[in-house]
Amino acid sequence: MNIQDNYLKNRKNIFFSQNKDIQNHREKLINIFENDSFDKKNNESLKNINLKNFIDFKYKYLIPEETSVINNNHENIYSIVSVNGQCSSFKDDKIEITKILDEDYNDFSENNTIEKNDHFVNLNSLFLNSGFKIVIKKNNNIKIKISNIVTDDGLTIFQKNNYICEEGSSLNLIEEYENKNNSTSNILNVIKLEKNSQLNHFLIQDNSLNHNLIITSHSSCKKDSHYTQKVYNFSEGYVRNFHYSELIETNSEADLQGIFFLKDNNISNNKTFVSHLAEGCKSNQVYKGILNDRAKATYFSNTHVDQVAQKTEGYQLSKGILLSDNASYFSKPELKIYADDVKCSHGSTIGPIDENAIFYLRSRGMSKIAATKILISSFINEELSSIDDDQMAEIIQKKLVRYLSKVK
Amino acid sequence: MNSETLNTLDTYSKNKYKYGFVTDIDNEKPKKGLDEDTIKFISLKKNEPDWMLEWRLKAFSKWKKMKEPKWANLNFPEIDYQDIYYYSAPKGFEKKPKDLSEVDPKLIETYNKLGIPLEEQKVLAGVAVDVVFDSVSVATTYKGELEKKLGIIFCSIGEAIQKHPDLIKKYLGSVIPAGDHSFSALNSAVFTDGSFVYIPEGVKCPMELSTYFRINAENTGQFERTLIIADKGSYVSYLEGCTAPKRDDNQLHAANVELVALDDAEIKYSTVQNWYPGDEYGKGGIYNFVTKRGLCAGKNSKISWTQVETGSAITWKYPSCILKGDNSIGEFYSVAITNNFQQADTGTKMTHIGKNTKSKIISKGISLGKSQNTYRGEVSFLRKADKARNYTQCDSLLVGNKCGAHTVPYIDSKNNTAVIEHEASTSKINEDQLYYCRQRGLSHEEAVSLIVNGFCKQVLQELPMEFAVEAQKTCIYFS
Amino acid sequence: MFLEIKDLSVKIENKNILRGLNLNINKGEVHAIMGPNGCGKSTLANVLAGKEDYEILNGKINFKDNDLFDLNIEERAQEGMFLAFQYPVEIPGVNITPFLHSAINSKRKRMNEEEIDNLSFAKLLKSKASDLGINIDMLKRSVNTGFSGGEKKRYEILQMSILNPDLAILDETDSGLDIDALKIVTEGVNKLKTKK
Question: Number of folded domains in chain A?
């Protein structure tokens, strides 16, 4: 079915389809797809993907029967179960959770650093059927854990979440994606950090083979704020993690970190894009990948330094280990710099596990396979040991052990 | 940035382009524009065999269907291909002059001014030169000696088409197919002159071979074609230099250079590109769209590119290596300096096909004024490239706050025994270093030059001795 | 008066470092400025050499009948001021020979003296280096690049002896040196002094 028919047929349970402006915007998006007017060849969002599968899909959405639960157990910890992308409203003196509104529709697409060519973002805007908005109130320090659950086979979730950290607030956000059914989640996160706020965003992804997960997020940081993102991808299904970060006021920081563990025929596409738009900001992008069997991964990283962004520090690092003959890794670490008082660098290495190290360990009596596993663990040790949440560290350690048990 | 840095920058931007004079000489051109007749005209002028004309026409029909590649970080108005002369030769060049007594003294004078003397008694020792003026090769020095004693063929490509059709048929277009992209198709259709080199098996060429390109005529494109073949176990070092007069219009230069290295052969190719860059307001200058590609066809072969890019309004250039033979080596050393409104998008492509292939990329970009300087490079390891290695280092230096420095590497690995390492950095000129140099009594300007020069050293030291000094001068705008 | 500092007050990044410093130095004298960390010793050295990060709030400095503040960094150096840095900066890719050669010639030019040619300079450099026990191989390396702390200090003294300054300011040149290196450095300093 073509995009237009698909949209018209399912309009009734797509958000904001009564809104004229949004309607107009969506028609434009439909035109882009119908006219094939986008650049397929150099499109980063399409590498290793058969776009047709994602455009020509069967739309299905179920409004969850049970409203999702929020739990406040006195210690500034909130547990949210988001079902099919929805979460019921909640309000106390620290946080407020509401549905997303018409006015939240456009705050992503009008942003200029995000490519107009990202079809998954466009599909999300077109078929938007779920999502919520969380505001962390001034000067509060809290932790939120969100379990993202998809209830039925064949569901296509198009979800949009807004996070707003008000001045001086601090949020530890842990998101879990562990879906076993045959479904697709296309999620757009828009994150705003006000002055002097802080957000540590962890994403643990462990979906089964038939679940596709597409996450695109955008964070903007005001003065002295700090956004950290850590993604751990153990999924067997397709996962795409794209993050765009804008440092819009002085002395703000963005730390973007990702580790992916791939095997079989798995594909993972990753991108981080940091725009330095003010003086004295810092950014750090570190992505590490371990690829086994016939897995394929891409990593695009981009540091853009505007002319006004003097005294910028921007670092990028990407590393890949290929464990098998048939795995492949594509990396494109880009620097675009228009200010002169900057310190920017990037490094990238791709290769096998160091043979000398294997030899050394074997000469101490370790088997080859044990040596390989130890070296894989050490490859990501720095990132894992920097997790200061014990519960999280334990979860990830378990998943790592499971991944390693399949390495032969 | 302090005021003295600004003053220094100002001096640089006003630094005069030394090679901007025009030689007043009558020339012969076809009508403007590009169609089959233009190509037939060129082919006829060059007295080419039919197969060559056919080859050109085939490329032309491909070109008509192609669009210019658009991925580079460059801004320029649409090129009007019908507003260009595709051939220009000083009058009376139907046949290449046998010796210098037949060459117009004005031409000899031109090359003297450029520091490339052609008279027998003055020729550069240790360097054989082929000089190309607009669309024709003017003279080739040391030619006889190389050919008689060692069997080395060093001549214009036009001459090679006449005298060595077998080699041309076998290798022309073998590394850069005509249909590769629109500039290679254009060049294949209308190329006028350039150099041809063949080094026979086992011969180490004892001197530097060099071509000096000069664009003189107005509204004229230069489309040269160079082909170098190093047969088994041979070695050659080749250098090209380029200059053009100052003109207010932009001129197009779209060259193709193909290198083939057979088993155990080595080719070292160095370029000092100093085409007219336009004035301090961005007016005029050469559009330099160049395709350079080397094929390490044989085992243990090696191709090394060294380039110093200082000129041209626009540089679009990616000297590349296809590492097909096992154990073959590709190298790329580059310094690109942009000033005023210059734009450079340059880098390399290393394609590892064979086992144990190695490549090394050292790129230094320096941006001044309002210029944009991009390194773009691709390293790929194909499935069979067992134990392949790459090391890449690209550093950018920003001098001033209105320019841009960009790094766009593409890294693709499909082999799990191959190792790739990539490092890049961008920074401004170090104030502490400037202070240190000035405390020792160097002027601000000297200090900047010295530091920039040090920054480029890794690349400059790869140039052949004879040209390193000259390149350093061009490079740091000392005059 | 050879060097006269009058009522000097200096600020850097909103911090007042020197407040009303007075100091007179005559030709041929050796002075030691002592004080705890952060009292402004390096600041004074850098202000004399003309580093641009400092803001001069008040005061005057005369050096060899010049108002020092009228001269920029290199002009002061060419007038005979030399600062041996506490932490000499690394300059990759720049060899000492052309570096010092242009330094000495820019000084000679200012003094209306004849420039020294390549060959004589190379000889001069070699002989001074061997006087200071500096290995010839070290002269082939880039300025300060990959040097140990002691090597850098020796290298500063080598430059000092070549440039033959009228006023040498040694900013903690003795720190981080072993006994042998210290001896070489002191001998270098004494040689310069007796020659004047």
Answer: 2
